[in-house]
């Protein structure tokens, strides 16, 4: 991960605001909601190999402007541009990509002669190490949470996992303890170069605690 992004995560700085500040050359405390929203779309779009056309559709902006956003982003973060090229190159040579925990996904499409199929393979190669690694982390967090809740003998249980969220049911008498266990279990699930920070909320229904 590049140094600027590492510093943002380490100091609990909103990554989309940080990206907007860098890409739009704006002081971080002057970044507008629109700039943050557009930077967020670029942040997530890049890992899916989004095109200037795709970004223009997502943001409802001219294609030329979308292309400038992508170019500015990759020029601002040349390490990401290099990472993307290296991942695609390696996938073409080896036929697969790995998550950070070495879970493998084969990508036969990446060497297809069909442009659309090959482009799909390239997007898979780019996205799998990122989204696949995130999926690995949440699974470790679920195991950690289950074991720690059980060990503490609190009246709480995991009922659902949605993307990067773990939802538990807990009795009111054990609510505070269960929240503490869930938070620490998720944050300590794996060790990375940046901290894994978790927000915890509670309520009488999923709607109240969202």
Automatic annotation (TrEMBL):
| A GO MF label | DNA-directed DNA polymerase activity
List the EC numbers from the record.
2.7.7.7
> Which reaction is the catalytic activity of this chain?
DNA(n) + a 2'-deoxyribonucleoside 5'-triphosphate = DNA(n+1) + diphosphate
**Does the keyword Nuclease feature in the UniProt annotation?**
no
Q: Which Pfam families match?
A: DNA_pol_A
From which residue to which does any coiled coil extend?
Answer: none
GO biological process: one example: DNA-templated DNA replication
UniProt gene name = polA
The record's top EC class is transferase
Family, according to the entry, reads as follows:
Belongs to the DNA polymerase type-A family.
Superkingdom to which the source organism belongs: Bacteria
Instruction: From the Swiss-Prot or TrEMBL record, give the protein name.
Output: DNA-directed DNA polymerase
What keywords does the record list, in alphabetical order?
A: DNA replication, DNA-binding, DNA-directed DNA polymerase, Nucleotidyltransferase, Transferase
Q: Does the keyword Plastid apply?
A: no
- Stretches assigned to the DNA-directed DNA polymerase family A palm domain: 2-174
What Gene3D superfamilies does its record include? 3.30.70.370, 5' to 3' exonuclease, C-terminal subdomain (1.10.150.20)
